[in-house]
């Protein structure tokens, strides 16, 4: 599904140039659950943003479903992203002025989905995330765990093929975090490819494969089993 | 959802709504006003080919031209110039009494004209046959309003109207109503209620006549002008007539003609430009506020927009959201502005006569919707929202510096020009004679039979204690009527012909206006009586009974105890005469050489006064000689007790009506007269004052919003500074310094602009204030104080915050 070749990303601020990603090569297959780990500043989030087409690489190639997208124009990347990729963030990023239902509906608004289908789809996802009873509430009225469940509901409401999660449990206590991880695993088992950036070794265990980044380079790539044996 | 949004950001939205609303009201008002001003006399189908003659006295420098010409010059225009198709004469006599249905009336809107009037002008005729009007002698056409006033609901056609004209005896008599016309529209440069017929070829000698020409489509204006002038010069027997200085297009009269004898107060193009500029300034300031606050709003919403984009929204989708969101405040603003504009006359106590058409309201609203809704998209169009979806951009307040600078520059310029206007109008008011102008009553254009009874009337007026002073003069304040003739004076070279302007006054004139002499005494003693003057006026070379009249006059003079003519000069006259010291003129023998040589006898200069400034201030004071000829004093003046105004007016009216039951009592206050003369300047002053206040309010609101935004973003910086030992006061000073420097820059740019505008406006006046430096400094300091007050309040709040709180802010 994803193939990355010699991909680099450099940031320039006035006269300092920082290399966030340095000649990375990577492949992620459809249906995989991959965790990306590494110390702060190692380029995890940058990589995730490039995978999500929110950001473009400075050099190198990024193939999404065999199509080169790294050097595409913004509008084309936006078009490919639509319906194919969605995100779960550490800080939830819900829109404060929209209630739960409207937040979850958001991605469907920009696809050709009939009103009735939209409603059915949103209610179904909300039920699944066990948050249906709060569909008329506003984000400020929800707990952190509930907000993240709404965010996940929104991310999957349009059935994306790829779900990118940036520290999804970072703002949650360990019990709610565990619930969120279970939800992601469930989605993955139903066929959604997941790439998750995390600091948490425990969360990483849910993934099939762990990629470790250090100073913008891939240091190790291990399956979850190998990962587990190293740690325990 | 939109409502939610608005409630959350009510500060931004109310500032925007107020700003757009005010701009909308101003746009509507100014547009309607300008449209009306530009529409004057457009309703005549032949407007493009109609011209009015303007003449200029070559010898009187700096004097405004006149629109009337000597009646005897008109007849040759009918036949000798192929470019002229039709000639319309309009004669406007003062001092008339009209009788209809046994009732007496007076009208200021009364003209004598020839039948061509109805051929070249399109004033609507309601009753009567346009083609036959004035085919018979002694016909009159009256307005609907007049018909109703004179004859009630009865049929007016065929009724008789009698008119007595004091200085045009030949035209006094009975006239038959031949037509009723609709009341003249507001946008006609003159309004007539009664049009009395004169024959096309009737020779009305020496009477001031407004002359309109309908010209051929193919015409050469300058050659026509030269041909007429050459013809007049060659064929006029006694004296050289004033040449035509301009053929004024009919449509231009209202905005461009400012002659000495306009039929009504005209508008001015300068006024319009000032109004439009003021409206543009208000609009620009409101627009700048709007775009700034929109940008602030956009930054606040940026996170949401990014989330939407991540979830598949395109830029068009975001644009749609912003566009729709903007419509509600714009609608509110248009509603608010519309209400303000429709009630403008009530709110501002002014007389713009707001008559806003529904169509104008509609299209101006649409333009506002379009401009402001599109402007709401500016931040989206100029920010790369999708470029960097993962990051929040750096938001600094530097972006707003230029616009704040611009707003403050406009506000400072507006304050400066407003001060200049107020000072100038003040100067003008103080230069005109009279201490309490609102307590001086003028009875203008008094009919002859009342002029003859002046002494009796004066006595009866003064029996009332609320009437303090009574006097009379040649004409009413505010007018500059040229009446210049040569003179002879002891010690002045006779070979160089110089002229002085005569102004006749009654003996108490100086007391009433509280005028003190520069030299000599203003005691007029015995002056000539009206019967004496009547005889003197008729002694001229052509009179066959000249000798008998002179005998009579001498007898009369003796009866009076032998009066001696007394002359008073003004300072400008001294300049013409080359006399430095006013004392030197006192006691010198003087004679004013009027056409009737006996009327002004040889006498002495008894006093010199400063320039009187009785007329308007657009032209320089004339060199003047004052003398008393009671026959000429057709303007009565009374100074009353300002605390007993109503009582005094009632007494004046009662006494007047006792002596003259047939001629209605008419009066005006001197301050109103001057306000009428400076109608355009007063209008400009009021409008500009309003615009200055509006632009300052809007600028302050904008600054308030922006500074609160930038301080919000500085909360963390303030916290860090405080944590590192800075005091609240130091922080306040730091932030104030930042704003002060921008106000100073704005001030430096505003000064030359305001200076240029003010100087240009002042050049209208012959007497003007100095553009002193303090006006500029005061305006700058005012703006600075306003700016500091606006910023300080919020800054202080932020600066005194607990640093821990501030540091928590993210």
TrEMBL record, chain A:
Listed SUPFAM superfamilies: P-loop containing nucleoside triphosphate hydrolases (SSF52540)
Which Gene3D superfamilies does the record match to this protein? Answer: P-loop containing nucleotide triphosphate hydrolases (3.40.50.300)
* Classification via Pfam families: ABC_tran
Give the domain of life: Bacteria
Q: Name one GO cellular component term.
A: membrane protein complex
Tell me where in this chain the ABC transporter domain is found.
Answer: 2-232
> Which InterPro entries has this protein been placed in?
AAA+_ATPase, ABC_transporter-like_ATP-bd, ABC_transporter-like_CS, ABC_transpr_LolD-like, MacB-like_ATP-bd, P-loop_NTPase
Q: Does the keyword Secreted apply?
A: no
Keyword list (alphabetical) reads: ATP-binding, Nucleotide-binding, Transport
The molecular function GO annotations come to: ATP binding; ATP hydrolysis activity; transmembrane transporter activity
Q: Which family does it belong to?
A: Belongs to the ABC transporter superfamily. Macrolide exporter (TC 3.A.1.122) family.
Record's protein name: ABC transporter ATP-binding protein
Automatic annotation (TrEMBL), chain B:
Which GO terms of the molecular function aspect are on file? transmembrane transporter activity
Give the record's membrane topology.
Multi-pass membrane protein
Where does the sequence pass through the membrane? 12-31, 272-290, 322-344, 356-380, 400-421, 687-706, 739-759, 771-793
Do you know which InterPro entries this protein is assigned to?
Answer: ABC3_permease_C, MacB_PCD, Macrolide_Exporter_MacB
Annotated Pfam families: FtsX, MacB_PCD
ABC3 transporter permease C-terminal domain ranges (all copies): 278-380, 690-803
Domain (MacB-like periplasmic core): residue spans on this chain: 15-228
Say yes or no: keyword Transmembrane helix present: yes
Keyword match Lipid metabolism:
no
Q: Which keywords belong to this entry? A: Cell membrane, Membrane, Transmembrane, Transmembrane helix
- Which Gene Ontology CC terms are recorded? plasma membrane
Location relative to the cell: Cell membrane
Q: What is this protein called?
A: FtsX-like permease family protein
């Amino acid at each position: 599904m994803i193939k990355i070749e010699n991909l680099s990303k450099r940031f320039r601020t006035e006269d300092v140039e920082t290399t966030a990603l340095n000649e990375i090569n990577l492949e992620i297959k459809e249906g995989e659950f991959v965790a990306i780990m590494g110390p702060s500043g190692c380029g995890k989030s940058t990589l995730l943003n490039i995978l999500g087409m929110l950001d473009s690489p400075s050099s190198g190639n990024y193939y999404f479903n065999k199509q080169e997208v790294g050097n595409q124009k913004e509008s084309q990347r936006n078009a490919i992203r639509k319906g194919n990729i969605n995100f779960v963030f550490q800080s939830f990023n819900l829109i404060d002025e929209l209630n739960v239902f409207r937040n979850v509906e958001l991605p469907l608004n920009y696809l050709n989905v009939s009103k009735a289908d939209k409603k059915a789809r949103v209610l179904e996802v909300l039920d699944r995330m066990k948050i249906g009873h709060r569909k008329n509430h506003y984000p400020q009225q929800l707990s952190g765990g509930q907000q993240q469940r709404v965010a996940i509901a929104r991310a999957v409401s349009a059935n994306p093929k790829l779900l990118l999660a940036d520290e999804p449990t970072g703002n949650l206590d360990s019990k709610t975090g565990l619930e969120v991880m279970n939800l992601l695993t469930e989605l993955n088992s139903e066929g959604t490819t997941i790439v998750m950036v995390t600091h948490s070794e425990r969360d990483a265990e849910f993934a099939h494969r762990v990629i470790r980044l250090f100073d913008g380079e891939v240091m190790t790539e291990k399956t979850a089993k190998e990962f587990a044996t190293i740690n325990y | 959802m939109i409502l939610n949004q608005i409630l959350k950001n009510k500060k931004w939205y109310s500032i925007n709504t107020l700003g757009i609303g005010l701009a909308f009201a101003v746009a509507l008002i100014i547009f309607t006003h300008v449209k009306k001003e530009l529409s004057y006399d457009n309703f005549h189908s032949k407007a493009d080919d109609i011209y009015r003659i303007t003449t200029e006295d070559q010898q009187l420098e700096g004097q405004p031209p006149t629109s009337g010409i000597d009646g005897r010059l008109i007849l040759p225009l009918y036949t000798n110039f192929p470019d002229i198709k039709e000639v319309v004469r309009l004669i406007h006599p003062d001092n008339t009494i009209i009788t209809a249905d046994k009732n007496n009336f007076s009208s200021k809107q009364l003209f004598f004209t020839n039948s061509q009037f109805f051929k070249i002008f399109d004033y609507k005729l309601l009753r009567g046959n346009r083609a036959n009007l004035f085919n018979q002698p002694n016909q009159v056409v009256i307005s609907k309003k007049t018909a109703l006033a004179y004859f009630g609901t009865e049929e007016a056609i065929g009724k008789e109207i009698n008119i007595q004209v004091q200085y045009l005896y030949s035209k006094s008599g009975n006239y038959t109503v031949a037509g009723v016309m609709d009341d003249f529209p507001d946008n006609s440069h003159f309004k007539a209620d009664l049009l009395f017929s004169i024959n096309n070829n009737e020779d009305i000698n020496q009477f001031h006549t407004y002359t309109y020409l309908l010209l051929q489509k193919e015409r050469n204006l300058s050659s026509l002008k030269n041909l007429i002038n050459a013809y007049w010069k060659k064929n006029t027997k006694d004296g050289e007539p004033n040449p035509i200085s301009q053929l004024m297009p009919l449509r231009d009269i209202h905005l461009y003609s400012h002659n000495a004898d306009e039929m009504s107060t005209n508008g001015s193009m300068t006024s319009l430009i000032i109004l439009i500029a003021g409206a543009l300034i208000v609009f620009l300031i409101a627009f700048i506020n709007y775009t700034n606050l929109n940008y602030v709003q956009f930054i606040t919403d940026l996170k949401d927009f990014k989330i939407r984009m991540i979830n598949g929204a395109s830029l068009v989708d975001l644009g749609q959201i912003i566009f729709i969101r903007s419509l509600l405040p714009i609608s509110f603003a248009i509603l608010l502005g519309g209400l303000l504009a429709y009630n403008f006359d009530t709110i501002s106590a002014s007389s713009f006569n707001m008559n806003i058409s529904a169509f104008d309201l509609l299209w101006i609203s649409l333009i506002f919707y379009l401009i402001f809704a599109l402007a709401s998209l500016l931040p989206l169009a100029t920010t790369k929202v999708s470029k960097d979806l993962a990051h929040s951009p750096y938001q600094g307040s530097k972006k707003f510096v230029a616009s704040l600078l611009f707003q403050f520059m406009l506000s400072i310029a507006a304050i400066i020009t407003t001060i200049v206007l107020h000072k100038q109008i003040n100067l003008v008011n103080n230069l005109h004679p009279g201490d309490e102008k609102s307590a001086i009553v003028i009875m203008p254009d008094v009919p002859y039979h009342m002029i003859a009874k002046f002494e009796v009337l004066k006595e009866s007026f003064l029996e009332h204690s609320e009437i303090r002073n009574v006097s009379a003069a040649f004409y009413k304040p505010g007018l500059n009527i040229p009446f210049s003739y040569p003179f002879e004076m002891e010690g002045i070279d006779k070979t160089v012909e110089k002229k002085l302007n005569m102004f006749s006054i009654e003996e108490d004139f100086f007391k009433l206006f509280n005028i003190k002499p520069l030299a000599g005494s203003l005691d007029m003693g015995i002056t000539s009586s009206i019967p004496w003057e009547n005889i003197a006026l008729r002694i001229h070379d052509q009179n066959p009974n000249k000798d008998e009249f002179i005998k009579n006059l001498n007898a009369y003079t003796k009866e009076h105890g032998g009066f001696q003519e007394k002359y008073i000069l003004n300072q400008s006259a001294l300049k013409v005469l080359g006399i430095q010291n006013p004392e030197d003129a006192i006691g010198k023998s003087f004679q004013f050489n009027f056409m009737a040589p006996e009327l002004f006898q040889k006498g002495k200069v008894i006093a010199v006064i400063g320039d009187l400034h009785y007329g308007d201030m657009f032209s320089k004071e004339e060199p003047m000689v004052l003398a008393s000829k009671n026959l000429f004093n057709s303007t009565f003046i009374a100074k009353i007790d300002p605390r007993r105004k109503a009582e005094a007016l009632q007494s004046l009216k009662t006494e007047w009506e006792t002596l003259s039951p047939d001629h209605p009592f008419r009066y005006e206050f001197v301050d109103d007269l001057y306000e009428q003369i400076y109608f355009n300047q007063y209008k400009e002053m009021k409008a500009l004052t309003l615009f200055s206040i509006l632009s300052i309010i809007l600028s302050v609101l904008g600054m308030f919003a922006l500074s609160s935004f930038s301080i919000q973003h500085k909360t963390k910086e303030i916290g860090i500074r405080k944590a590192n030992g800075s005091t609240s006061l130091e922080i306040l000073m730091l932030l104030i310094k930042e704003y002060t420097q921008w106000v100073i820059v704005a001030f430096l740019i505003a000064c030359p602009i305001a200076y240029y505008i003010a100087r240009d406006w002042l050049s209208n006046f012959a007497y003007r204030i100095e553009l002193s430096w303090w006006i500029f400094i005061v305006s700058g300091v005012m703006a600075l104080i306003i700016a500091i007050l606006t910023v300080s309040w919020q800054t202080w709040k932020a600066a005194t915050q607990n640093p821990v709180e501030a540091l928590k802010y993210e």
